Amino acid sequence: MPASVAWSSQSSIIRLPQVHRHSLRLVALGDSLVYGYGDPEGGGWVERLRRQWMSPGSPGHVVYNLGVRGNRVVQVRDRLEHEFRHRGELRNRVPDVIILSVGVNDCARIQSPQGRNYTDFEQFQTVINSLLDSAQNLCPVLFVGMVPVDEMKMPFQDCLYYNHENQYLYKEATRLACLERNIPYLDIFEHWLKQGETWWKSRLSVDGLHPNTMGYQSLLHDVLNWEPIIQMDRSHHSQLI
């Protein structure tokens, strides 16, 4: 794996070579969940993470938010390498870690609850495999899954129908594709549903699709307490001692 950071599935640690004593550069690519739509206070979980890592005493990692509202998996795949190559910062360095989060727009049904999926499921499987392979050839990869939608608020924009059945199908395809490649996958969909309907619905915007401010706060909490992120910070810190 060509990178300054290597993921070890055996030890569940992102290992940093001794020779690199610098803060990490991360890029977050995906859809509106990365972009942070619905959080006018904090700008979403990626922006909140970026600000937290800018504070004194933090690891000092740099995060580039490359989220685009409405993106599907094919669009993220097609812009992956170009975005990656142009997010260096110092001495033409490329990023150390890619965080991906995409898929909810692909699973929407168009025009009616029984309409076709925005991205055909077989095509989605092909493209998500291609995206993960391409990303992993660049550097270590983490994947943050989708949040559950409020089916009672559909349709979104009068034409897109999201439902849990399709969300589960597409997120499972993504989770299994990540598992095959030893890419850590944070299953937000399952985690939020386990908290109970009152809990997760209170964290969605009025459109029933995007998290609200409280939702993005919860997402940030989930990410910061995710073992790969914890180990990444520990491993990086140990190189600086």
From TrEMBL:
Signal peptide from the UniProt entry: none
Do the record's keywords include Hydrolase? yes
Q: Which stretches make up the SGNH hydrolase-type esterase domain?
A: 28-217
Gene3D superfamilies with a match to the protein in the record? SGNH hydrolase
Q: Which GO terms describe its molecular function?
A: phosphatidylcholine lysophospholipase activity
Provide the alphabetized UniProt keywords: Hydrolase
Note the Pfam families from the entry: Lipase_GDSL_2
Q: Does the keyword Zinc apply?
A: no
Q: Which PANTHER family match?
A: SGNH HYDROLASE-TYPE ESTERASE DOMAIN-CONTAINING PROTEIN, THIOESTERASE 1/PROTEASE 1/LYSOPHOSPHOLIPASE L1
Q: What is this protein called?
A: GDSL-like Lipase/Acylhydrolase family protein
From the broadest rank down, the organism's phylogenetic lineage runs:
Bacteria, Bacillati, Cyanobacteriota, Cyanophyceae, Oscillatoriophycideae
